[in-house]
Design goal:
The chain has one helix spanning 15-28, and strands at 2-11, 33-46, 49-62. With 66 residues, the protein is an alpha+beta fold. It has one domain (2-62): Flavin-binding protein dodecin (Dodecin subunit-like), CATH 3.30.1660. It has a 3-stranded antiparallel β-sheet, with helices on one face. The model has no long low-confidence stretch (mean pLDDT 94).
């Protein structure tokens, strides 16, 4: 059985790195990931420059076994 998590990833380098940021944090938490879907991409601009890339992911992880 799977459960869906919604996770936000960020990076100063790009969208791919923002995805990796989110996935690495979920893996570090010990979750067994089955798949993920990028739901949204956005960024932050400060002083006329792109400063941060952000992604919202839906991640399917294995439901804890009893």
């Amino acid at each position: 059985m799977l459960r869906m998590l919604e996770v936000v990833g960020t990076s100063r380098l790009g969208f791919s790195e923002a995805v990796k940021d989110a996935m690495e944090r979920i893996l570090a938490a010990g979750e067994n990931i089955h798949f993920f879907q990028v739901m949204e991409q956005r960024g932050a601009v400060r002083d006329g420059k792109v400063r941060e890339f952000q992604v919202i992911l839906k991640v399917a992880v294995e439901f804890p076994k009893k």
